[in-house]
Amino acid sequence: MPRSTITTPLTLGAVALGTLATLGLSGCSALGDVAHDRVTSEAATRADLDAAPDWLPADARDITSVAGTGGKASDTTPTTLVFTSADGVTEDSCSTAPRQSAPTMDVEDAPDVYGATEVLRCGPWSMTSKGDRWIAWTPNPGDGGS
Fold first, then answer.
1. pTM of the prediction?
2. Coil, helix or strand for 10?
3. Residue 68: is it exposed, middle or buried by C-beta count within 10 angstroms (0-12/13-18/19+)?
4. Please, which residues bridge with residue 140 across strands?
5. How many CB atoms lie within 10 A of CB 98?
6. CA–CA separation, 90 and 134 (whole Å)
7. β-pairing, 61-68 with 125-130?
8. Burial of 120 from C-beta contacts in 10 A (0-12 / 13-18 / 19+)
9. Which residues have a Cβ under 8 Å from the Cβ of 74 and sit 6 or more positions away?
10. What are phi and psi of 142, to 5 degrees?
11. How far apart are CA 133 and CA 125, in angstroms?
12. Hey, where are the domains in the chain?
């Protein structure tokens, strides 16, 4: 009898540990998102997005979006969008401005915004690129946006 009492908790503990290890390997992004108050989404193309900013090029692909979920209440959720586009951002309502802001949400393998002296500003979004790889972020205080 005592043996089954000891075995059951150990067995359940081993199963729980195995489950956590599996989640850790397969869901690192999801666990990291929870720990860092953010939501990461990926889309193969612009057409795969539920909602896309007007300035996002039609040929945008390999899109990663990281949006904040915690923090202070505001009209603008901190969001960083990284994508590849050969056409680039050509929206008429966008203009260049000296870079004064930087993304608050990090995305792995994004272009380095700190090397940019100017950004393209499209309303509450600022963006820069390295080759055909773009990074855009909001809010953009100091760049003339939000």
1. 0.71
2. helix
3. middle
4. none
5. 12
6. 13
7. unpaired
8. buried
9. 139
10. 95, -25
11. 16
12. 1-35, 37-138
| Number of Cβ within a 10 Å radius of residue 73 | 4
pLDDT tens digits, one per residue of 117-133: 999 999 999 999 999 99
Return the amino acid letter for 144: G
Q: How far apart are CA 116 and CA 75, in angstroms?
A: 27
CB atoms under 10 Å from CB of 45, counted, come to 14
In angstroms, the Cα distances linking 73 to 68, 69, 76, 105, 144 are 11, 10, 9, 16, 21
Say which residue, 62 or 49, is predicted with more confidence. Answer: 62
CB-based contact 111:84 (threshold 8 Å): no
SS3 35: helix
